[in-house]
Amino acid sequence: MSGNTIPKNVDDRLVTVKDPVILEYDEAELRELHAAVRDPNFRIFTDRQTITVFNNEIFVRGTDIQEIFSQLGVDEPTHAFYLGRELAKAKLAITLGKTYRQEGALNWGYLTPPDDVKSEHVKLTQRSRRRGSGEAGKRERGAAGQRGSGAVGPAADE
User: Fold this and answer.
1) What are the sequence ranges of the domains in the chain?
2) Which of 10, 13, 31, 105 could lock 109 by a disulfide, CB 3.0 to 4.6 Å apart?
């Protein structure tokens, strides 16, 4: 850099710690999304301070990932592992000033590996607490075989 001139072709991909802009939703927007959710899969969102997790039955906001997890009522080990990993990544994103995308890598500029689209996913569908009998119960049990987390956080809107 010579004489106060910024080098050519430099952009935010060189930034590896903080994102220039963090994609975030306020609580009112998230509650509106929550009202539209009809399945038991958890959606995870962050803003600059808070993690929000919700599905068709629960809406939890907080900063302590262990406290958030304890309110989710997850008992299936693979789903618990997945949510624990995503909550830890969400907390890291908040701590480092980065945008969190559920099931996506944090953006580290040129250092970010592409998301692995070919990886095998575990069945992540949370069982509904309102499981009933009859046709509605059959539909819920049939949906349990689908890949979980239909919405992947803020990136789903893009």
Assistant:
1) 13-153
2) 13
